[in-house]
Design goal:
This protein is globular. Helix 5 packs parallel to helix 6 and helix 6 runs parallel beside helix 7. It has two domains: about 90 residues, Urease, subunit C, domain 1, CATH 2.30.40.10; about 300 residues, Metal-dependent hydrolases (TIM Barrel, Alpha-Beta Barrel), CATH 3.20.20.140. The chain is α/β, with parallel strands linked by helices. Strands 1, 2, 3, 4, 5, 14, 15 and 16 form an eight-stranded mixed β-sheet that branches. Bound molecules: fe (ii) ion (FE2). The site of fe (ii) ion (FE2) has 5 residues, from loops.
Length: about 425
């Protein structure tokens, strides 16, 4: 099998990319445009961009497609979202969770996403959503590689048997240990929740991804606790701080000191720009904060940060369609990252950087010997993807086509 006339990121010319038995076996520069007939074995990329699959490193598949059930989040705050979710949780069933999650996975697949990290609420004595998601993970494995985070939506220390439920979730098969220290009842409980979750991850050899300081409160400083725990234990590359929106409210003197620790810790960051601009800044009049973490500054400091969707039509965020390029577009705008250099490499924030966060290693990337998983975007390069709001037109996973989009036809008559 081969793809001809492919543009590759950051490379001039056109390439032929070949693969056999689900693995790339050659990537060769062409001398010019090829005119081979398309067949079952030959795909013509038509001078469009062939790249590694897109990734959504932070979503809540157990909550998707529930907006307005039973009530809408009228204030638009994160805290009312947690209340509305608490109501919806009472009617969650195993089948309901599976059906919504699988429908959403198809929405993600339609946009060229092949790797997903989903948080699943484990503050439920029956762990219904987790059981459902473990089945979903198996059933969708030909489309998407799913990492499941044991996520304590209502707290670890502040929820009855929080410790027990987290450990049970990990034993059942959660890949990643989560947390929500800023939501615990006291600062002390927030700190002890971080110690607990890091111990749990170390004990069971799991990754870590914490909802950390998802609040505009400049006094919310659990990131330093998480980063230092990661540094001391040497686990940084396996640890992620999601959101860290309070960093958008920290003063520069504290942030300067904090960055020294963050760099040494080697932890990863995830920002959910559409979610955060919607949920944060809700207690401000004017000036009104954007409510995002310092994405550009984290990136410029050489640390790893990526963008994610977080929600699709749930109690926290009422819209969304699975298109991570929409999130990238919004994130670059909100974070003042539409400069020339950012635009040349902006797809890193929804591909390579996310792969590092998910610890995909040599299972990801357009290189000989790696799995033949790739997408073709209807664009030429990173800049073109954002400028034209490009879409994935083909998605191939381990050598098999899993999604094809018919190209749009627009006719203008004047
Ligand atoms: Fe989240």
């Amino acid at each position: 099998m081969k793809v001809i006339n492919a543009k590759l990121r950051h490379k001039d010319g056109l390439y032929t990319v070949s693969y056999q038995q689900g693995t790339f076996d050659s990537i060769e520069l062409q001398t010019g445009l090829l005119n081979e007939a398309v067949s079952a074995d030959v795909i013509d990329a038509k001078q469009q961009l062939l790249m590694a699959p897109l990734i959504d490193p932070h979503i809540h598949l157990d909550a998707v497609l529930t907006a307005g059930e039973p009530e809408w989040n009228m204030s638009g705050t994160l805290f009312e979202g947690i209340e509305r979710w608490g109501q919806r949780k009472e009617t969650i069933t195993f089948e309901d969770t599976k059906q919504r999650a699988k429908k959403t996975v198809d929405m993600l697949t339609a946009h060229g996403i092949q790797h997903v990290r989903t948080h699943v609420d484990v503050t439920d004595p029956a762990l219904t959503a987790l059981h459902a998601m473990l089945e979903v993970k198996e059933e969708i494995k030909d489309k998407v590689n799913l990492q499941i985070v044991a996520f304590p939506q209502e707290g670890i220390e502040s929820y009855k048997n929080g410790h027990g439920l987290m450990e049970e979730a990990v034993k059942l098969g959660a890949d990643v240990v989560g947390g929500i220290p800023h939501f615990e009842y006291t600062r002390e409980k927030g700190v002890s929740s971080v110690h607990f979750l890091m111990d749990l991850a170390e004990k069971y050899d799991r990754l870590v991804d914490v909802h950390c300081d998802e609040i505009d409160d400049p006094a919310s400083r659990f990131l330093e606790v998480l980063a230092d725990e990661a540094r001391v234990r040497g686990m940084g590359e396996r640890v992620t701080a999601s959101h860290t929106t309070a960093m958008g409210s920290y003063d520069n003197a504290y942030c300067y000191k904090l960055f020294r620790l963050l760099k040494r810790s080697k932890i990863n960051f995830i920002s959910c720009p559409t979610e955060s601009i919607h949920l944060q800044g809700r207690f401000d009049t004017y000036p009104k904060r954007r409510g995002l973490t310092r994405v550009a500054e984290i990136d410029r400091a050489g640390m790893n940060i990526s963008f994610a969707q977080d929600s699709i039509r749930d109690p926290w965020y009422p819209v969304g369609n699975g298109n991570i390029i929409r999130i990238l577009d919004a994130g670059l705008h909100i974070c003042h990252m539409l400069g020339y250099e950012d635009l040349q490499r902006c797809l890193d924030f929804v591909s390579d950087n996310s792969a590092k966060t998910l610890c995909l290693g040599d299972q990801y990337g357009i290189e000989v010997g790696r799995p033949a998983s790739f997408i073709i975007m209807n664009a030429q390069n990173d800049y073109d993807v954002v400028a034209n709001q490009a879409k994935a037109v083909l998605s191939v996973r381990n050598g098999a086509v899993i999604m094809r989009r018919q190209e749009e036809q627009v006719e203008i008559f004047a």
